Amino acid sequence: MNDELLQQGQVSERNYNNASCRVAMDDLETPDGVAMESDSLQVLFPAVDHWNFMFLPKEGDHVATARLPNGTSEGYVLGKPYTADNMPQGGAEGVFLMVSSDGKNVVRLDAVNGTMEVIFNEKAILKFKKMELLVKNDAVIKVEGNAVIEAAESAVVRATEATIEAANVVITGGELETKGTVAPTGDGPYCAFKHCIFSNAVHTGSKVSGT
């Protein structure tokens, strides 16, 4: 039996319920020459205050393990080292990086340049009970397909100046109201007549009814 406390091998089985893995050891073999498999080993995770991380290496991943000195069955999976055929994809100084094995999904936080990049190949869902988004300079939101902004109750857009540019604009509602008065132009939904037909007074208005 190898007495080394630090060992390595390939994950043969993983358990999400208790965050553990079984590992086929590279340097331990049965009398038949088959890699000896460990018992379930707890996977070590970083911990930050009240935050708990959860991720398990997949079956076949090369991992490093530590065996406790009081026996051969207890120990921990320390982590997954990078190898020559699987190097960091975009790693750099000051960068926190998460990349899926196929390279299509990326979370990249750059502390040196103060940038964040999040790329998901399929679908991303963000859920917040309450959120405040503050952008000190310019912000651009680009959607290559359709975009829907939906609020269960009220929605407010505040700006010194707001512009909607589209080939067609449709606003559906029982009543459209602008704050303040709107000077009549002679056509359109706001006061098509510049003067009242009865008193000849100048028309102003802030509401248009209809859908």
Description of the structure:
With 211 residues, the protein is mainly beta. 0% of the residues lie in helices and 33% in strands. The protein has a domain at 6-79: Beta Barrel (OB fold (Dihydrolipoamide Acetyltransferase, E2P)), CATH 2.40.50.230. It has strands at 6-15, 20-29, 35-37, 41-43, 47-48, 51-52, 62-67, 75-79, 95-99, 106-110, 115-119, 175-182, 205-209. A hairpin with a 7-residue loop joins β7 and β8. The model has no long low-confidence stretch (mean pLDDT 80).
Low-pLDDT parts are none
Order of helices and strands: EEEEEEEEEEEEE
Termini separation: 81 Å
Roughly what percent helix? under 10%
CATH class of one domain: Mainly Beta
C-alpha Rg (nearest Å): 31 Å
Determine the number of helices (DSSP H or I, runs of at least 4 residues): 0
Briefly note the CATH topology name of one domain: OB fold (Dihydrolipoamide Acetyltransferase, E2P)
What is the overall pLDDT average? Answer: 80
Oligomerization: single chain
The CATH superfamily label of one domain reads Gp5 N-terminal domain
How large a portion of the residues is in β-strands, by DSSP E? 25-35%
Structural class: mainly beta
Q: What's the main sheet like?
A: 5 strands, mixed, barrel
Q: Which sequence of strands runs across the widest sheet?
A: 1-2-4-8-7
Spatial shape: elongated
- Total E-strand runs: 13
The CATH architecture assignment of one domain turns out to be Beta Barrel
